[in-house]
Write a structure and sequence with these properties.
With about 90 residues, the chain is mainly β. The chain has one domain. It is about 0% helix and about 50% strand. It is built from no helices and 5 strands. A 3-stranded antiparallel β-sheet has the order 1-2-5, with no helix packed on it. Strand 3 and strand 4 form a beta hairpin.
């Protein structure tokens, strides 16, 4: 990649979350697109919904150039009350 070209690097995310209560749990749906860099995590009530490591995915800071190259579509259920631990 020639950095002398007039190209912009940016961290771009277009992610959406929906929640719905189901008794003592929360149904979570996460979907969208994002750049393959940097590392990021999304938690709901201390439960990891997404843990993205660009190194494990073979990505570099060059992934900050367009296009957004990662897609996500996760549905899961988490406890409505966070466990504060011991």
């Amino acid at each position: 990649m020639d950095f002398t070209e007039n190209k912009k690097m940016a961290i771009r995310h277009r992610n959406y979350l929906t929640f719905s209560a189901t008794g003592s749990n929360i149904s979570v749906h996460l979907w969208g697109v994002y750049d393959g860099f940097p590392w990021h995590e999304i938690y709901v009530n201390k439960v990891p919904i997404l843990q993205y490591n660009p190194c494990l995915a073979g990505k570099t800071p060059y992934s900050l150039f367009e296009p957004m190259d990662e897609a996500i579509d996760i549905s899961t259920v988490v406890p409505a009350q966070a466990d504060d631990g011991p």
